[in-house]
Design a protein that fits this description.
The chain is an alpha/beta fold. The protein has a domain of 152 residues: Isopropylmalate Dehydrogenase (3-Layer(aba) Sandwich), CATH 3.40.718.10. Helix content is 43%, strand content 18%. The protein has an 11-stranded mixed β-sheet, with helices on both faces. A hairpin with a 5-residue loop joins strand 10 and strand 11. The longest helix has 25 residues. It is globular.
Length: 313
């Protein structure tokens, strides 16, 4: 059934309180409508950050009533990114949502060393895909932030993806470290790095999931392909998370699934102080709502962990 997996995500947040969300520069119909749709669904409470006259014009063009939502006025997109990040730092927002500005512009404010939202962990991107031909949600990382991640970067990318899977209710996610082959070949660096990441998991440097790799894509998602090649273990043919070698591979894989297999892709950035929802003008309504739902599930999980640790931790 189309969007079935996304509907489960959206249903999962139905009992959770709507989360205050700084929406950076929602100055076109697409980004503004996405935020308002999520607000009407009870998922977020948007704080619209941008030039007030442009936000109002977009609302009028789309026939959207935004009178119930706070507008924090700025002069331009760069200021919108900085002010949205500041709202998070001030504790007024628990989520950050991209509007009609460029991703790089928003990320520059997020990673700013003095006033951004950095943590000790590398920031990375995940797509959560609803693929009609796959039996469960599929996470692909990293397709938008890290261009050519090092082994150290990939360890953080894997940890971020495992944290996301936990928030989605996957207790022990199966992590497939992708390459062009399932054999370790020193001439293909991604195979060597995949093997190193698996050993890091064996030694407890990466925890919370089951890692296997290198795996070719077919071996990661097709039980039959894994059987034919004689690849055993719990991950092969049943992956929850696909870790790609680099941004180009991830971007092509996610977009191939979206445009050739009718998959919906919800985008989320992890590793910062709060989750960041990345939406595209090409996203369906279901994808936008799913992105917000994923952000809310992550925020709820972090809130619960903070309560468990106690104040001052």
């Amino acid at each position: 059934m189309p969007h079935e997996k996304y509907q489960r995500l959206i249903t999962a947040v139905a009992g959770l309180p709507a989360v205050p969300t700084a929406v950076a520069h929602p100055c076109d119909v697409s980004s503004l409508a996405g935020a308002v749709d999520a607000a009407r669904a009870g998922i977020i409470i948007p704080i619209l950050v941008g030039p007030a006259h442009r936000i109002t014009a977009a609302a009028q063009a789309a026939g959207i009533d935004i009178s119930a939502y706070e507008i924090v006025g700025t002069e331009h997109s760069h200021a919108s990114a900085e002010r949205a990040v500041a709202l998070v730092r001030e504790g007024r927002a628990e989520l950050l949502m991209k509007g009609s500005l460029h991703t790089d512009e928003l990320m520059a404010a997020v990673v700013d060393r003095a006033n951004g939202l950095r943590t000790a962990r590398r920031i990375s991107h995940c797509f959560v895909l609803d693929v009609p031909t796959y039996h469960k949600p599929l996470i692909i990382t990293d397709a938008a932030i890290n261009i050519a991640p090092s082994l150290e970067d990939k360890a953080d990318i894997v940890c971020n993806a495992i944290e996301l899977a936990h928030a989605l209710g996957i207790a022990v996610p199966k992590v497939a470290l992708l390459s062009a082959t399932e054999s370790i070949n020193p001439k293909i660096p991604s195979t060597v790095e995949a093997a190193a990441l698996c050993k890091m998991a064996d030694r407890g440097q990466i925890s919370g999931g089951l890692l296997d790799g290198p795996l070719a894509l077919d071996n990661a998602i097709s039980p039959e392909a894994a059987r034919i090649k004689g690849i055993g273990g719990p991950v092969a043919g049943d992956a929850d998370i696909l870790v790609v070698p680099d941004l180009e591979a991830g971007n092509m894989l996610a977009k191939s699934l979206s445009f050739l297999a009718d998959a919906d892709a919800a985008g989320i950035v992890l590793g910062a102080r709060v989750p960041l929802m990345l939406t595209s003008r090409a996203d369906s309504v279901e994808s936008r709502l799913a992105s917000c739902a994923v952000g809310v599930l992550l925020a709820a999980r972090r809130r619960a962990q903070t309560v468990q640790k106690g104040p001052g931790v």
